[in-house]
Fold each of these.
Amino acid sequence: MSNVALVVGASGITGSNLAEKLIAEGWVTYGLARNPNTDIAGLHPVQADLLDVNSLEKALSGVSATHVFITTWMRKDTEVENIKFNSLMVRNLLTVLSQKQSVKHVALVTGLKHYLGPFDAYAKSGTLPEIPVREEHPRLEIENFYYAQEDEVYAAAARDGFTWSIHRPHTVIGRAVGNMMNMGTTLAVYASICKETGRPFRWPGSAAQWNGLSDVTDARILAEQLLWAATTKAAANQAFNITNGDVFRWSWLWKELAAWFDVVPAGFDGDIHPLEAEMARDHVLWKEMAEKHGLIESDLARLASAWHTDLDLGRPIEVMTDMSKSRKLGFTAYKSTRDSFYELFETLRSERLIP
């Protein structure tokens, strides 16, 4: 049987980049979402609600996927609700797919909240891991919807006999509109507003993040690891961290990002200045900028996810990721983080998402 991929969450940063990679490699690729992405040439869109089994059964009736890539999640008000709904989405999907017995491999994308804790207790005292984070670190003794998602994959694999892989990126940098965790575009929009208004490009986060070492994950590097793990026998039934492969300090990168936009950088000044508050009154301004510069998206909320950027940049510790595990098994892809941001900014500008 030829490789038939089902990318769940194909309209997001991770899913869209993965779909493009799979199609380029000759895979038959289906993209499942509530509002499917129709911009990717060669992608077969599938519209379905992961919380509705009947919707899934109908939408997937003609799809015999060999490889399933789960790249989506749903944010709720509490971690109890996050666990309930996100585990149910995975369970429903794998239960429906089980009927055809076509699945060979399931990949689940989670993230560093596996080590840092969920949103309710994110990187707070008592939950802080040893840095750099490594895949063998035990689960935290607190509830976490990532663990619940993993357990659904493990249970379905035991039932149906497919292999699995878990992928834990740091902050994912890539193009997407309407995404809830989108630091790259958020910073591009913030810098564009600073340029328009003459405001300084002010660091919004903590001293630990400003001064400490960090890393991020280009969406295209994540796509490469997903494909590698799905097709490499030695990678079966394992969890992997995934980052670009370099490290940096925000005290350096912040000036590099400011230089690209030709704005004045302002570093850590002793206080945290959350972007959510900084950009709270910029919605009308962005609409005016969209009209002035001929931008195709005038809704600031569909481009910027300041709340999530604040979580990442406001951490009280430096956070780095150990990549030894997949490197030792032969995964050697690398990406310069400065290039990740610059290439994203160029894409956003060429597509008229930023001025």
Amino acid sequence: MSPRDLARLHARAMAMPPPFSETAFHDLLAHPGALLLTRPNAFALGRVVLDEAELLTIATHPEHRGRGLGRACLDAFHDAARARGAARAFLEVAENNAAARALYAAAGYDHLGTRRGYYREPDGGAVDALVLGRDL
């Protein structure tokens, strides 16, 4: 997927936080530790630095949810991160994103901390970010 394709899918999939732009995807993919794992209508983007992996975003087209695409991308992210020497994976998720939280819980992520008011909703409200992690 090109940065343009990623930005379009991300915009369709994300309610909050604001979706990444084409430029943001281009810049993230230029990082030497970047990992992009794709499936038709879904992707996971992260990076590996030393022995840590960070999942930056994961997206599934709304019309293709519930088919295991997100889980497949997440599993592929774990495998690719482990292959690059990562021992642990981290991510942030909006506290009110029940679907993502269920995905991460099923994949073995534990709650490590909370960033109060980290995300901004379109109406100006704030939502906490949960910091999650798991061993790889």
Amino acid sequence: MAMLDTTFDVDKLTYEIFSILENKFLFGGYDDPKLKQAPVIQQQLKPAKPAAGGSKVRILSIDGGSATNGILAAKSLAHLESCLRSKSGNPNASVADYFDVVAGSGAGGILAALLFTRGKNNHPLFTAEEALGFLAKRVGSGGKPEGILGKIFRQGKSDEKVYRKLFGECSLKDTIKSVLIPCYDLATRAPFLFSRADALEMDGYDFKMSDVCLATSADPAVVGAVEMRSVDRKTRIVAVDGGIAMNNPTAAAITHVLNNKQEFPLCNGVEDLLVVSLGNGESDSGIPNRISTPGRFIRIAGDGASDMVDQAVSMAFGQCRTSNYVRIQANGVLGKKNHSLEKSTKTHKKSVILAITEEMLAQKNVESILFEGKKMVDSTNLDKLESFAGELIKEHERRRTTILPTVVLKQASPSPRTSSATTLSTWSSSC
């Protein structure tokens, strides 16, 4: 097998995955000691030079709803925000302060909108704890649950009113950091990525945040597609659930950063990233018998796609995956509390749900190991979040001493560029 010519214009993520695969099969294992005896491969595996000053772009990715419909991710973020406040000594620290990019799909997209839309005094609209309370309250008042935790967002006029009341006239331009929220556009039959960067460059890509939330969480089995238009009324979207486009948007967020030199001028590869990817639990334990077979397959397919993204991203990070990338995902604990939630009253549903998320976060973390599938590690999901909070704070402090900017968020529209939706399609076809 010939070595891949690095002079080719190959997508960075694809190239790194291919390189690791090639090394595995040629030399008996990425972590094999024999690699140290192969000077050519040793040189190839040498980590790329980090960005100037060692600074890293911080990415938060939140999966679409599955077994827990956003509650696990919200609880994870509440714990992370608490750790950030404790470790930094700032009681008002927010998740948005410590991330440069957020990508969220489905219920994850709504979480991203709540935590990264600008509110009063330039602070986020919601704290992580408030966002968790918002989701838990809607489960607790949402009637009979479907599955274990129920359907959080029962689309319809009531949800539209809730989002419009929450976000008012805020649009993608009013988000604090770089925001990426997907949906699937039936009008073009392609994924569409709502993007702050696109909105700042072209009014035709600026949408109200209330519409963005409706689009990314539109369940086709409940309300069908949701039609909407951009703020300038020129762009029309016929949207369904973002989870159909990408249940796990981590790869899309990484691609956005690596191909966006205007906002992230010093980021050259995955070694220049810090990524937190939040899952929402597996769907195998908790799908009630009344859910149709097609519905089961859709959920299983969504979880499978999320796992594939996790595996690919983990391989792309290679040797720095344990320090630069963390995946928080629960595995099969919901069944224990199935009857408890089904029989609980509205008053008790919230406490039961939060107890479930506590149990999930107390589980041992599962990592995707190169060429060896998933492996359970000694640290718990809570341990991983606390450890990564420390890394985020180190990066925050590091930037105080660097001259060159790690991130230059767009504030105006100097020139048109390809939309994120087009970029996403290009990336998908190249992999």
